[in-house]
Amino acid sequence: MTAPTVAKTPKLYIQGAFCRSESDRVYPVGRVNVPRASRKDVRDAVRAARSALPGWSSRTAYNRGQVLYRVAEMLEARRREFVRVGGGGRAAGREVDACVDVLVYYAGCADKLSQLGGSVNQVAGPYFTFTVPEPVGVVALVAPERPPLLPLLTHMAAALCGGNTVVALVAETAPLAGLLAAELLATGDVPAGAAAVLSGLRSELLAPLGSHRDVDALDPVGCTPEQRAELERRAADGVTRVLPSPSTPVPGHHLALASLELKTIWHPVGV
Amino acid sequence: MPTSPATTSARAESPVAAPAAATASGFAYAAAPEATDHIRLRDRYPLFIGGGFEPPAAGVHHPTLNPATEEPLAEVAEADAADVDRAVRAARRAFSSWSRLPGARRARYLFRLARLVQERSRELAVVESLDGGKPIREARDVDIPLAAQHLFYHAGWADKLPLAFAGARARPLGVCAQVIPWNFPLLMLAWKVAPALATGNTVVLKPAETTPLTAMLFAEICQQAELPGGVVNILTGGPPAGRALVRHPDIDKVAFTGSTAVGKEIQRTLAGRGTRLTLELGGKAAHVVFDDAPLDQAVEGVVTGIYFNQGHVCCAGSRLLLQESIAEPFLRRLRARVGRLRVGNPLDKNTDVGAINSREQLERIQALVDSGVAQGAQLFQPACELPTRGYWFRPSLFTEVAPAHRIAREEIFGPVLAVMTFRTPAEAVERANNTRYGLSAGVWTTTGQRILWMAQRMRAGVVWANTYNRFDPAAPFGGFRESGFGREGGPQGLAAYVALR
After folding, report:
1. Hey, is the C-beta of A266 within 8 angstroms of any chain B C-beta?
2. Please, what CATH class does the domain formed by B5-30+283-465 belong to?
3. Which domains, from first to last, does chain A contain?
4. Under an 8 A CB cutoff, do B474 and A121 touch?
5. Which of A251, B194, B207, B422 could bond B215 through an S-S bridge, CB–CB 3.0 to 4.6 Å?
6. What is the count of residue pairs from A and B with beta carbons less than 8 Å apart?
7. Does pTM top 0.90 for this prediction?
8. Exposed / middle / buried, residue B480 (Cβ in 10 Å: 0-12, 13-18, 19+)
9. Nearest CA to B201 among B258, B157, B241?
């Protein structure tokens, strides 16, 4: 008789720690019990993301790029496991490979954003004027149900590379790949709190995400129109940014620029 | 009638000098009024829809007043939902051909508009001053030239859009609903219309209820420029017209400049509609002066920061943060300078501070100033004489302000400065960022590295260092946090009017 396998308990990833929901609730996905994050888990994750923001955003862009590259290395090294969790087929393999590509893309994007999105402005007067992108702050990301990994990692990497911190809600019906991806963040040197990964029910988690005044931007890429409407309604109370979800994916660095603010600085020129 | 400021000055410090004709400083100025004989206003302005002037469906009009005299200048139409629908349909019809026009052709029209605004600049400046109460000097030297420059700048983008969005294809959005405020009427119109048209969109624009006239002159300019009918539609009216416009089901984009409260209402209204939105809302900017700043220049900068356009400026430097060691000498100079501001007839070329835009706004300013006095801040107002008719408010500054006071937290949108102090750069940053807004900030210091250090840390979309209230179409403008989102100006501002693929 073979020994029973040691199964991994799926966990949330909050403030750099793998944990159950503070509510101790789970919901079944197939035969697996997945943590059902609570309103308080959302608050804890947002608070951690807010605390991690000054550190992460003030790192050099070069350093952030290297961290994202390290996350890509972690994924590549665990490719087989991720393909298995993704269903094991060809499509799952292609999705994981695309995720590695995307992580490498944003690793190389971090230190180009001010040249891609910023400018020296030719104003009609004796002033030196320039515009630089800055992180908007804490980005709450709602990932699509499928594919479960690629959009999650794409939007998370795009937000992280610009210096934002991220609270991500993974697919409700296929949460395992997203939850596993948290291990890439933990071993890829993303600082504790800078990225949180939550699983749970949208019907109860969109409200606290949308209404939290410490969330600076909402990325509803994985929302249904109704879910998006709810987030947008709640966002209005604090003029929280809601990133557009166009019918076709926003290409490359434009997605990273979407979660950045622009700051224009003026100084006179003279003697 | 406005409440006399004297009634609220129970705690006011003594004025700088005895009152004179127009200032408290003792200098007398001969009046230098701008000529108005070349201005021809119609008695009544209809709506501008589909390239023609059309009466409003319900036949309702309201007068627009000169806030300096309370005399009516003209009547403008009050658009209702039926008018909004007609205008949106006209814009939709125009969109298919306008968006397909080669960029270079669209540019031609925008260049024409810019030139016509320049040609009619004095007329526009005088009407802007009459309708809104701003000093003719500012309308003539800031509002109208910048409006023309904005049109000219964006004309040049129309045929270069692929360069602005490398690695993506930019498509126009469709019909843009644009709602603008009363503080810079024609300039805000240009900020909205120019990028929308350059990127191939068509617009329905609603100017503010109290300052519709230059927008109606711009409608004439669109006709003179032979702009295809329906590309620009202009609907006058109050908040109901604005509400009907942003609720119309066939608009693709809303661009709003105005108060944070209305901005939130619009954001809520558009939830789930898929309509793109940019908001340029209120502010409570910190203006930080360090002890190594050139004091005389900094005083001028602070005065420009808060008293420019009667303080009706969303990016006004309304919270002055002085480093403690220079607070007293700085305030001495500042009070003396405020005492020399000339308040009065906006059409007088000597005037520094004109009329408050409306009775409603005057009452709002007065209420907030009253709260400052009631909460224990120290009010200073020069004793200049104010005209007996019209809406006026003395340039005011409060000392002994606590961060929790309403005058330190709420946007006053008037000539009222709240002064606080700080000791260290870190404290300056903390105080500057202690607001829900984030539109602009100012810093005065001669230490270069400190300028950049402060500029990095102040959470604001525009940071002016050793200057204040500078604007240019090439320099993106817009806010962080509850000051809104989206930028206006520069290639970055074009992004608000396109979908990327």
Report:
1. yes
2. alpha beta
3. 12-268 (3.40.605.10)
4. yes
5. B207
6. 125
7. yes
8. buried
9. B157
